[in-house]
Amino acid sequence: MKIEACRSMLADILSGAVVNVAPGPFGQSASAVLVMARAYESDGWRFYCCGDPVNALASFWYGFGWFHFGTCSGLISTKKDPGCPFREPLEGLAPVYESALNEKTTRYARLLHTARSAVTPAPEPGTAAHGFAERVLLIAGVYAAIGDLRHHCEAREDALASFSYGHGWLDAGVTCGLFRITAHHELFTV
After folding, report:
1. Were 123 and a residue from 3, 34, 130, 150 both cysteine, which residue would form a disulfide, CB within 3.0 to 4.6 Å?
2. Where are the domains of the chain?
3. pLDDT per residue over 98-109, tens digit each?
4. CB 93 within 8 Å of CB 54
């Protein structure tokens, strides 16, 4: 799959996205998730248009992470078919981007692994919110493991997408109050 096709998929689903909850704390969380998903789509497009496909790739998948967190939590919805940005491997970037791709993939792997260990669920055990926080940690862990495997197999584009996506989920969860940050506060957007 080409990076610009993933951008089109993200832009399309975001164009039909709406907040599902009434104003108040949950409405503020929903709005924040939607704003951040749109911001990462916009930033990614800016990177892409400026000839930086590595940062574009990371931004688009980070935006997908925020968006999918929002839809799975019920905070936002879309009338568009959300599709799956992982339905096929990413097209390889030109060799000129290899150094930047290797550096960013290695750094994002470290960031996601560090971020996962820097949070704990904030809601009380046994509550629905605690269960969803555990689900977010699981999803971030699954995409960290997928990213590690793809990185090991030198599928760096797919590895970077996985690390960015997993971190998007985790960052959205922090922003919505599902986690306490116990270390490395700088890794989150709050």
Report:
1. 130
2. 3-80+97-187
3. 999 999 999 999
4. yes
